[in-house]
Amino acid sequence: MQEIKIHCKKCKKSMGLTYNAVGKPLAPVLPNITLKCHTCKKVSTLKKYTEQLLLERMDNEFRIFI
Hints:
By secondary structure, the protein is mainly beta. The chain has 1 helix and 5 strands; from the N terminus they run ββββαβ. The protein is globular and about 30 Å long.
């Protein structure tokens, strides 16, 4: 469907990770995966993130800030 780019919420830089939406709104997205920003060293764990949540928080350039 569409490719969602994941960015850091703190420094607004790309984390170098993308997620391809598959069309299942309740499907968990990268459960228990830890992401670390290369710029500001912020660490995020995606718990209880679903594809529907990503699509709701996505901006017009297909970016999400975590």
